[in-house]
């Protein structure tokens, strides 16, 4: 009988201690019946943002690698009171994110696929907000003598020689799509290029790592000029071919269509489009890179998309 009483007494004592501990944690003798209110303090932690307060953006690696999104993201968050989640990948993957409803808006650089994305019902509108150019870059020695050639003729010489390394993104990115377009314009089948020997290397990576690989191999590659300039100090590569309408590179914003797939913040996605096209942000985009490189990495083009 005594053992039973001791067990009960011990249980009651444990319950009293637990209740006392809980009261101490609440910090009040009269806790609210609706539970504690979570406040954004270091002691209590911060609350979880509702989906309406988050905006998910899929962007191409070149916009990310140049640091442009690092500049724009906090500005948009401050102005609109929303948390922006930027997912960077190649254009192909960014479009897939949009098709699945993983993001609210995409900012990429492959017009043909952007228009197809909209035609298939996944996007609402396409708004070009900036452009620059692709360049064929390589070692300063330019072993194949591509300097001064058109992009198409440079690719012909690369394919005919098969001695100098060419590093391709090989990843269904906007840059990889442009590369394929140049091979086609040069009259060379892309599948033939891919199977033509060890000179043709596919990195399967973003633009920054691809440039670094080309530098290590002392080979050539195709890059948007913004990322090339941002990584130039790390690669030792120089611009070899930078003229020709085929090298135009336009960036556009496309909100994901909420009628086709479920998105979390369609209204804020539209606000981002309008914000990117606004005079103030267009000026910021146009000034970006001037201080470090002596020239802007992007040219703003709201309402004035270049054709060539």
TrEMBL record:
Keyword hit for Cell wall biogenesis/degradation: no
Signal peptide: 1-23
Composition bias, Low complexity: 31-42
InterPro entries (alphabetical): ABC-Tungstate_binding, PBP_domain
Top-rank taxon, per record: Bacteria
Domain PBP: 56-279
UniProt keyword Signal present: yes
Keywords, sorted A to Z: Signal
Pfam families: PBP_like_2
Region (Disordered): 28-47
Name of the protein this chain belongs to: ABC-type tungstate transport system, permease component
């Amino acid at each position: 009988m005594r053992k039973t009483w001791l067990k009960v007494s011990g249980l009651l004592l444990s319950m009293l201690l637990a209740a006392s501990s809980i009261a101490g944690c609440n910090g009040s003798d009269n806790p609210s019946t609706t539970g504690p209110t979570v406040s954004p303090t270091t002691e209590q932690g911060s609350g979880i943002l509702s989906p309406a307060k988050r905006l998910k953006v899929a962007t191409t690696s070149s916009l990310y690698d140049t640091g442009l999104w690092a500049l724009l993201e906090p500005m948009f968050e401050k102005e609109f009171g929303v948390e922006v989640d930027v997912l960077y990948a190649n254009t192909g993957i960014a479009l897939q994110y949009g098709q699945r409803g993983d993001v609210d808006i995409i900012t990429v650089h492959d017009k043909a696929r952007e228009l197809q994305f909209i035609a298939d019902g996944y996007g609402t509108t396409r708004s070009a907000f900036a452009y620059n150019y692709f360049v064929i870059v390589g070692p300063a020695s330019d072993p194949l003598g591509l300097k001064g050639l058109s992009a198409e003729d440079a690719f012909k010489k690369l394919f005919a020689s098969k001695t100098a390394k060419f590093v391709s993104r090989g990843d269904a990115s906007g840059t990889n799509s442009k590369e394929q377009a140049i091979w086609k314009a040069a009259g060379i089948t892309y599948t033939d290029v891919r199977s033509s020997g060890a000179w043709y290397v596919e990195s399967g990576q973003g633009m920054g790592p691809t440039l670094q690989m080309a530098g290590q191999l002392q080979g050539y590659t195709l890059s948007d000029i913004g990322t090339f300039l941002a990584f130039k100090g790390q690669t030792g590569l120089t611009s070899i071919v930078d003229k020709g309408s085929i090298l135009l590179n336009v960036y556009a914003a496309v909100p994901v269509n909420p009628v086709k797939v479920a998105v979390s913040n369609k209204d804020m996605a539209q606000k981002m489009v309008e914000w990117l096209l606004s005079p103030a942000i267009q000026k910021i985009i146009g000034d970006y890179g001037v201080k470090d490189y002596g020239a802007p990495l992007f040219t703003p083009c709201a309402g004035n998309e270049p054709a060539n």
